[in-house]
Amino acid sequence: EKGGYPHFMLKEIFEQPKAVRDTVQIHLNKDGSVTFPDLGWTKECFENIDNILITACGTAYHAGLVAKHYIERFVKIPVSVEIASEYRYSKPLTTNRTLCIVVSQSGETIDTLEALKEAKKHGAKSLAVTNSIGSSIAREADHVVYTLAGPEIAVASTKAYTTQLVALLMLALYMAQLRGTISMDLIHKITDGLKDLPKQIEKVLKEKDHMAEVADRLIKAHDIFYLGRSIDYAIAMEGALKLKEVSYIHAESYAAGELKHGTLALITADTPVIAVATQDAVSSKMYSNIQEVKARGAEVLGIGYEDDKELGKYTTETVRIPRVDFFIAPILSVIPMQLLAYYTSVKRGNDVDKPRNLAKSVTVE
Ligand code: M6R
């Protein structure tokens, strides 16, 4: 049942090319435009939307943080991203001019389901992005977009996350296409990139043994910092969660520009740093932040493009992803972090598929 892999988590990491290909294909027209026929949306639907709320838990929340960048950039509607267990007990300003998007692999997470009901109570229109057909969340939402990740068994979410990113990116393109806030050239550029993505994922998966080696050096660490800016910050949050969840090593993700406001005090030679640098608009700032932590003695693993000549000058070591559009980069840069979490857990002798204290589907509040 594990298809020759020692654990479900590794199997599911390696299923990402297929999961991504399947999720891309159903939303692509032959002419390279994007389609979500089941939504039945028109340009006019957006005349009644002022803001978008994304709410979810854990990894799905992290996918929402990336989607905020996608939607605001392409669709030009303000997006807020809320942790479901916080949103549902807040006094939200959600109205009937809000579109609420919930993201949930299982479709059964109770806080996400209740957050969706809360948003609907305020009149919001709703859409669920889920991996589970007929799940409670799929039934509760007005509209559903399915990720085609296939069953995810390991508690740590991997292929569900990358397919969520794909589905949310394509949804953002679709909304922008309807509203006329994006050029067809840009849509084609990104959809061409999405068609190539499974191949690019295969390339990044070749870093498996490299990440196993890096894991050897992380297993003794007490604290590991994950840094990024812009979309890379959201990816750093996911990388840190993955490591904590399966390796039980404390990890913290930080917006690299915030380091100076306190956290830099914690950086020493004993705190390895993982630095994600795929967002060209802020790469020079990111290089400065890497130099800051390196100057405090930290070993830095940089994650960046294969043609980035600068990154290696400042880091201890790098892991490279192919050069892709910077909206697509997060779907690749998270993969070395998934592998790193996996190997760190296995090398520490943990039950990587069933980490302590955690359940695959969180149906208690
Ligand atoms: O099924 P959901 O996507 O609603 O689950 C949400 C979180 O419980 C889940 O993503 C959790 O954070 C993962 N175990 C992280 O790997």
UniProtKB/TrEMBL annotation:
Compartmental location: Cytoplasm
GO CC: one term? cytosol
Q: Where is the SIS domain?
A: 42-181, 214-355
Q: What is its EC number?
A: 2.6.1.16
Catalysed reaction(s)? D-fructose 6-phosphate + L-glutamine = D-glucosamine 6-phosphate + L-glutamate
* Record GO biological process: carbohydrate metabolic process; fructose 6-phosphate metabolic process; protein N-linked glycosylation; UDP-N-acetylglucosamine metabolic process
From the UniProt record, which GO molecular function terms apply? carbohydrate derivative binding; glutamine-fructose-6-phosphate transaminase (isomerizing) activity
Residues of the active site are 360 (for fru-6p isomerization activity)
Q: Enzyme class, one word?
A: transferase
Primary site of residence:
cytoplasm
UniProt keyword annotations, A-Z: Aminotransferase, Cytoplasm, Glutamine amidotransferase, Repeat, Transferase
Q: Could you describe the subunit structure of this protein? A: Homodimer.
What does this chain do?
Catalyzes the first step in hexosamine metabolism, converting fructose-6P into glucosamine-6P using glutamine as a nitrogen source.
Kindly provide the name given to this protein in its UniProt entry: Glutamine--fructose-6-phosphate aminotransferase [isomerizing]
The species is Dialister succinatiphilus YIT 11850
Q: What is the gene called?
A: glmS
Q: Which residues of the full protein are shown?
A: 244 to 608 of 608
